[in-house]
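Sequence decides. Our protein:
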Amino acid sequence: VTNFDEVRMKMWESMPDFIRRSMTGATDSECLFHLILSFLHDARQLVPNVKSKNVADAVRKAIAMVDHFEIEQGAEGPSPCNILLTNGAFLVALRRSPTELRTMTWTAPGRDEIRPRAVIVGCERAAVGSSWETLPENSLLTIERDLTTEVTEL
């Protein structure tokens, strides 16, 4: 987060007390994560069976709030960042950085078709010549338990 020392207090003040109290570190990453949790709480979605759509919405809102705070502090533009969040049932990834995020779907033969067996997300290609796809900048990727993927604009 650009100008994090100046923005930190505004982020912190935007969180409910019980979420603030659970913070153990002082990094911009931890503060942003807890801000995302705050937006899930506001939407009454801070629950074990939260849906990926709700997490993606919370990421959008948290990033928009941080962008606003940064501009108030004189930043010329939004901070670059990549975020990966998972609860074991799905993954939400944000790419807003010159550093690329890529995905590759690993497939295996099924009974009647080739079906996905894993989706890999990484910053670097693990193998030359493999079928990595670069996520567009300013996009959100969701990967569901059944390995379906969706890319949307931030």
